[in-house]
């Protein structure tokens, strides 16, 4: 049962999509349950780091903006990820650093300026109802979130928090970690098991052409438009799908799968984005362009381990 004496925020305007996300729901895909968790692992991890929270602490992921919260108690928070025109008491709120707020203060999220998803961490972490070992909110599966039923925030809802063990020190993320999501990006991709089934022209274009983010993009996956990739395999026996898998359906336009993806799929795969590449893709607005870069498993593992060492 949720504690009633640790109310952190009141929702005065809900916005289109604000979800509670911890590290994700693991060990349950054999049940057909997906992982959820933060679409941008990088920004989520830094929000917790700045707020003094351990890895896995629940954070609020705000997509597109439109959210307004009123603080019900004094707290230390951190805002990372996208610039959604966030204001603290009508003043521009600082991002990528800690911020002390007082009871009665207002946090409002406008519209995307730089990136798509912002992360709000509070010292001590948000408190939700755990389902299958996680509070990660997956709306489609009706799991997780503040109520355990996968609901997005509602106007008037009270958001509960945990008591922090100590007030975190004032911190700012290094400039090198403060991402600018407006520029075209190159995403690291591990070639997949079916890559040899794509013809030579398609492989050349896959890694040399420019791809554009389609309007059809959400936490389940992002469709990309560009050259038509041709594969000798049209369908497969369905197999497990991992975070960042890049499937190519018969129309030849890749779909990169994200946190709320299905657990199995039957389209051939060009490869798999690394976790941090999938995070960067999750911040791309429709119309933005990107490229793929083929990488080997050793390089991908070194890069990811260096990232994890910052937070563990």
UniProtKB/TrEMBL annotation:
Gene3D superfamilies registered for this protein in UniProt: Cyclophilin-like
Pfam families named in the record: CT_A_B (PF02626)
Classification via SMART domains: AHS2
Domain Carboxyltransferase, residue spans: 30-311
Superkingdom: Bacteria
Keyword tags: ATP-binding, Hydrolase, Nucleotide-binding
NCBIfam families xrefs: urea_amlyse_rel (TIGR00724)
Record protein name field: Biotin-dependent carboxyltransferase family protein
Annotated organism of origin: Marinobacter iranensis
Lineage: Bacteria, Pseudomonadati, Pseudomonadota, Gammaproteobacteria, Pseudomonadales
